[in-house]
């Protein structure tokens, strides 16, 4: 597993696990957080992942009908867009299909 922190301009930089752990504990990693009818949609920089193109951002739904829905992204731009899409899905009560999940993660 590779670990990343965000540099001064918000771009991920690979680092060691100790630096990542200390940085994660002291940094606000929230990109967006939205409350919708008893559900919370949260998008954060998780900073750890596998492979050449790790998925470093995550959107997750807490509570409500879509509780546990989760998508991960390679870039902050994808994560912001994914957060908005997840908010729309929560409002509509639409769970993702496996094909949707794979497509969103690869975009």
Question: Can you walk me through this structure?
Answer:
The protein is an alpha+beta fold. The protein has one domain. The protein has 3 helices and 7 strands; from the N terminus they run ββαβββββαα. The chain has helices at 17-26, 76-92, 98-106, and strands at 2-6, 12-15, 30-36, 39-45, 48-49, 57-62, 70-73. The strands form 2 sheets. A 4-stranded antiparallel β-sheet has the order 3-4-6-7. β3 (30-36) and β4 form a beta hairpin. It is elongated, with a radius of gyration of 14 Å.
Molecular shape = elongated
Order of helices and strands: EEHEEEEEHH
Contiguous low-pLDDT stretches (5 residues minimum) are none
The fraction of residues assigned to DSSP E strands is 25-35%
The averaged pLDDT comes out at: 90
Instruction: Tell me the count of domains.
Output: 1
Largest sheet, spatial ordering of strands: 3-4-6-7
Q: What class would the helix/strand composition place it in?
A: alpha+beta
Enumerate how many helices there are, as a single number.
Answer: 3
**Spatial extent as radius of gyration:** 14 Å
Helical content stands at 25-40%
Biggest pleated-sheet summary = 4 strands, antiparallel
Based on DSSP secondary structure assignment, what is the total number of beta strands? Answer: 7
